[in-house]
Amino acid sequence: MFRLSNNLIGILNVLTFILSIPILCAGVWLSNKGVTECEKFLDTPVIILGVFLMLISLAGLIGACCRVSWLLWTYLLVMFLLIVILFCFTIFAFVVTNKGAGEVVSERGYKEYRLGDYSNWLQKRVSNTKNWNKIRSCLVDSKVCSTFAEKYVAVPAEQFYKQHLSSVQSGCCKPSTDCQFSYVNPTNWTATDVVQTNPDCKTWNNDPKTLCFDCQACKAGLLDQLKRDWKKVAIVNIVFLIVLIIVYSIGCCAFRNSRRDNAYRGKNGA
Ligand SMILES: *[C@@H]1O[C@H](CO)[C@@H](O)[C@H](O)[C@H]1NC(C)=O
């Protein structure tokens, strides 16, 4: 008997199964070859995602094509949980990224970032020393500040002040404007006698490995970047949720079909 929903679920799961193979390979590659701190962040989640996708695709595929009710049931249950989790995460992402923005400073092309402007939940994540040390070494590895230093090394002060900088560059690679340090080059500044109230001014160091990586402004700059990335992820999530709900509905039809078929076969003693 031709069952459209079973075939659709079968085809969809073949596609997701094929997709899970490169994801799994990427995860294994990252865990073996990933040298930088930033790559180490990713390998475990990527492997988990790959294995999860592979198992769930197999359950859906075998469940739909071979009419195995309990496999289809598991598949639908996991899909349902996934929809609920994704929905909650999307709402959470919008709430957490609602607060905070860079502050405009007069006569500067770039903005300054204050940790206090961002949501408490995000602040707590970056204020944890263990978390921050990992993020910090990832930032040092990623060379945001060394490429920044190379790009603007020959730029005179007045021109440097007019540049648009990314939030991470503004927060981590240069001292805060209110410190009123005098400019030598983008990552080399000398302190003046001005009274400083911002604790970040004492944290600043011209050593390329230190710079402002321990500043509150650096954490704020990172959160500003994160905020924008999460907004994008949340929007992609909404599209993904709609697709998942459609697949889930088709899966429900396939499940109903396989139960009906099993009941039919049972009644005829097959
Ligand atoms: C910063 O500039 C000063 C003055 O030109 C120089 O003496 C110092 O070595 C520089 N520091 C670094 C870390 O480049």
Automatic annotation (TrEMBL):
What's one GO BP annotation on this UniProt entry?
A: auxin-activated signaling pathway
UniProt KW keywords: Membrane, Transmembrane, Transmembrane helix
Q: Where are the transmembrane segments?
A: 7-30, 46-65, 72-96, 233-255
Where is the protein situated, by its record's location annotation?
A: Membrane
Answer whether the UniProt record assigns the keyword Membrane to this protein. Answer: yes
Assign the protein's first listed, main location to one coarse class.
Answer: membrane
Q: Give a Gene Ontology cellular component term annotated to this protein.
A: membrane
> What is this protein identified as?
Tetraspanin-8-like
Organism listed in the record: Dipteronia dyeriana
Lineage, highest ranks first: Eukaryota, Viridiplantae, Streptophyta, Embryophyta, Tracheophyta
